[in-house]
Amino acid sequence: MRFAGPGIKSIIHFKTPSINYLAHSYLSFNHPEILVGNLISDFVKGKKKFDYPTGIQKGIALHRAIDIFTDGHAATNEAKEIFRPAYRLYAGAFVDVVYDHFLACDENEFSEKSLLDFSKKVYATVDDHLHWLPEKFAGMYPYMKEHNWLFNYSSRWGAGKSLGGVVRRSVYLTESETASRLFEDNYQPLQTYFRRFWVDVKSFARKEFEILIQH
To answer: Is residue 181 over pLDDT 60?
Structure first.
């Protein structure tokens, strides 16, 4: 679950921060500190995580467990193959956007009203923890809130804007038109991959969450 970040350390160690903020928010199971940690995890490096309260540390740990599970899931790997020929190592970043779009549209999880209410609740929670936001996330967050990224994932227009955001945050990409076309041309198979993935990651994340809050 990744977006194209500010740089690439090396081809071997390539990793980009998560852009599927809706999924990570949802998989925090309404726990405020875990939600904050889940959202900021990719902006907290190394031992810096110990600078945060225990609840936020647990959210950071949950985020990382979800990412590992996502990267190893067969449906995610199949979805990446749609974008990989054109975008190579950035394929996962585009799959992140696709997953959040289909989650936002999933009638088993959200109605239009409940998605809007959920988005507002997430922003209110983050607003209550602004002093804990890492600098880079804090710089991005006002745009997330103002343009209501979480809610707007539900529209194809919003998903398209997020695909463009992957390119804007990347070092080497120059266009997102191909990604938008691949998204539209492969809408149904991508939705199928999401549904296969979501059942599994939701169950996995719930179990990890329960373990974390018990310790």
So the answer is: yes
> Residue 179 is part of which domain span?
21-213
Q: Which residue has the tokens 């992140």?
A: 96
Number of domains observed in the structure of the chain: 1
Best CA proximity match to 163, nearest among 141, 126, 190: 190
CA pair distance 191, 19, nearest whole angstrom: 18
Whether 18 contacts 3, CB under 8 Å: yes
DSSP string, 154-192: TSHHHHHHHHHHHHHH-SS----HHHHHHHHHTHHHHHH
* Banded pLDDT at 152 (limits 50, 70, 90): very high
**Residue 16 within a domain:** no
User: Residue 2 above 70 pLDDT?
Assistant: no
Contacts of 98 (CB under 8 A, 6+ apart): 79, 159, 183, 190, 194
Handedness of CA 181, 170, 91, 65 (dihedral sign): negative
Does residue 2 form part of some domain? no
